[in-house]
C-alpha cells in the first residue's frame, strides 16, 4: 500500500492544528483498506458515556478505558466533519486555527509515570502464578510500561503515516481527545466488526517473533495453546449467553501482526442475531481474557491491586460505531501515549501456571518493538535531513 508523504501534507497540517489547539480528532486506517479517514469534532466536546450500552443508538468514534474511573471515562467523538485521504481544504484548517474552545481543558501530564522495573514485573508474574496454582485465577494478563524521552523534532503525522505503511494488517490510529490525551496505536485485535450484515470477533493469544518463515510453519508450545483456548472458550461462552449459537468458527491458526505471530480463532454470525444490542455485546466481552484474564472480575481486581502503573486506555477499546452502517471496534494494544516531553509504551503478557517470568518479560519487550521500531525509523529519517 502506497502512503506517499507528499500526498498528505494538508492532513499533517490539520493534525498539527488540532494538537496545538487541543481539538478532538482521530485519523485511522482500517486493516488492509489503504485509506486514511479523519474525523474532527470542533463545534462541541465529545460526549461522555455513562455506560457502554449507550452507544447502541449513537454514531461516531468510541474510546473506552481498561476500567472506568473518575479519571478515565468512556467517550464518543461525534464528528462535525469527515475527511478521506487528503481532501482537506486550507480554509478549514485556517478556521480551526481561530478556535480556543478546548484550550482550557487540562491535558494529561504523565509526570507521575515511571518505567516498570524487571523486579516489579517478575514479582507480579510470580504472584499471578501463585494465585493460579491456588485456583483463585485461571489466567491473568500482567502489563508494564516504558517511559521514553520525546525528541523536540517529533512529527506525529509522519509517525502515523509510517505506522500505516509498516502495519497494513492492523488498525492504525492517531487520536486526541481532550479528556483522554494523545494516543497512537497499531492494534491487531478486533473486538467487534460489523459490515455487510455480518458480525465478526476473534480470540487472540500466544506470541512469537516473526522469522520470515511461511505462516503455516510456526509451531506452538502447550502454554500458548492453552492460553489461546482460554480466550476462545470465553468468547464461545458469551456468544451462547446472549443466544448466539449458530456461528462460524475458524481456527486456531497462526496470524501475523507486524513483528509478531499470534494464534487466532475467528467467529462470524449474521448481524440480525445481535440487532440493537451492540453495547450489551461489548460489555459482555470487555475486558476479554486476552487483556485481563479469567475469571474476569477476579483477574481485573488482581491487576488493579498489583500493577503500579495506570493502564488508562491501554487494553480498553476504541473504534468506529454505526458509521455508514458499519462498526469497527478494536482492543487498544500496541499503543503509546504522547505527552509534551515524553511518550509511554504499554505491553502485556498472558500468565498461566506454566509461565516463566523471564520469558514473559521478553514477550513484552518484543511487543513494545511494534511502536519502537517505527519511532526509530522516523528519528533516523529526521537525522538524515
Strand order of the largest sheet: 6-2-1-8-9-17-18-7-14
CATH architecture: 4-Layer Sandwich
pLDDT below 50 for ≥5 consecutive residues: which ranges?
Answer: none
Fraction of residues in helix:
25-40%
Average of per-residue pLDDT values: 91
Q: Name the beta content range.
A: 25-35%
C-alpha termini separation: 25 Å
CATH topology: Anthranilate synthase
Total domain count: 1
- Helix-strand sequence: HEEEEEEHHEHEEEEHEEHEHEEEEH
Name of the CATH class: Alpha Beta
Detailed description of the structure:
By secondary structure, this protein is α+β, with helices and mostly antiparallel strands. It has one domain (5-384): Anthranilate synthase. 30% of the residues lie in helices and 31% in strands. The chain is built from eight helices and 18 strands. The protein has helices at 9-21, 90-96, 118-133, 156-166, 222-241, 278-285, 296-306, 357-384; strands spanning 25-29, 36-40, 47-49, 60-64, 74-77, 81-84, 139-149, 171-177, 181-187, 190-195, 198-209, 248-257, 260-270, 293-294, 317-323, 326-331, 335-338, 342-351. It has a nine-stranded antiparallel β-sheet with strand order 6-2-1-8-9-17-18-7-14, with helices on both faces. A hairpin with a 2-residue loop joins strand 15 and strand 16. The chain starts with 8 loop residues before the first helix and ends with a helix.
Amino acid at each position: 500500500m502506497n502512503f506517499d508523504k507528499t500526498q498528505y501534507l494538508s492532513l499533517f497540517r490539520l493534525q498539527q492544528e488540532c494538537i496545538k489547539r487541543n481539538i478532538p480528532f482521530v485519523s485511522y486506517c482500517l486493516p488492509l483498506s489503504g485509506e486514511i479517514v479523519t474525523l474532527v469534532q470542533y463545534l462541541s466536546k465529545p460526549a461522555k458515556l455513562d455506560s457502554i450500552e449507550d452507544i447502541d443508538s449513537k454514531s461516531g468514534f468510541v474510546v473506552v478505558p481498561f476500567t472506568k474511573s473518575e479519571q478515565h471515562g468512556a467517550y464518543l467523538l461525534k464528528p462535525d466533519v469527515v475527511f478521506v485521504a487528503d481532501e482537506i481544504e486550507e480554509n478549514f484548517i485556517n478556521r480551526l486555527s481561530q478556535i480556543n474552545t478546548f484550550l482550557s481543558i487540562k491535558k494529561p501530564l504523565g509526570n507521575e509515570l515511571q518505567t516498570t522495573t524487571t523486579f516489579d514485573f517478575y514479582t507480579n508474574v510470580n504472584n499471578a502464578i501463585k494465585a493460579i496454582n491456588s485456583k483463585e485465577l485461571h489466567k491473568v494478563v500482567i502489563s508494564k510500561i516504558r517511559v521514553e524521552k520525546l525528541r523536540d523534532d517529533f512529527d506525529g503525522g509522519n509517525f502515523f503515516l509510517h505506522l500505516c505503511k509498516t502495519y497494513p494488517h492492523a488498525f492504525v490510529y492517531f487520536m486526541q481527545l481532550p479528556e483522554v490525551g494523545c494516543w497512537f496505536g497499531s492494534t491487531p485485535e478486533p473486538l467487534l466488526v460489523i459490515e455487510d450484515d455480518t458480525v465478526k470477533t476473534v480470540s487472540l493469544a500466544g506470541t512469537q517473533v516473526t522469522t520470515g518463515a511461511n505462516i503455516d510453519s510456526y509451531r506452538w508450545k502447550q502454554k500458548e495453546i492453552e492460553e489461546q483456548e482460554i480466550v476462545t472458550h470465553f468468547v464461545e461462552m458469551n456468544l451462547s449467553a446472549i443466544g448466539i449459537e449458530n456461528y462460524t468458527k475458524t481456527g486456531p491458526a497462526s496470524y501475523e501482526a507486524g513483528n509478531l505471530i499470534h494464534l487466532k480463532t475467528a467467529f462470524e454470525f449474521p448481524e440480525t442475531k445481535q440487532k440493537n444490542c451492540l453495547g450489551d455485546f461489548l460489555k459482555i466481552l470487555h475486558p476479554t481474557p486476552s487483556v485481563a484474564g479469567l475469571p474476569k472480575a477476579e483477574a481485573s481486581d488482581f491487576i488493579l491491586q498489583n500493577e503500579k502503573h495506570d493502564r488508562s486506555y491501554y487494553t480498553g477499546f476504541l473504534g468506529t460505531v454505526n458509521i455508514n452502517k458499519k462498526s469497527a471496534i478494536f482492543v487498544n494494544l500496541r499503543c503509546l501515549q504522547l505527552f509534551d516531553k515524553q511518550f509511554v509504551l504499554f505491553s502485556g503478557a498472558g500468565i498461566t501456571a506454566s509461565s516463566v517470568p523471564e520469558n514473559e518479560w521478553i514477550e513484552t519487550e518484543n511487543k513494545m518493538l511494534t511502536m519502537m521500531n517505527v519511532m526509530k525509523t522516523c528519528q533516523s529519517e529526521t537525522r538524515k535531513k
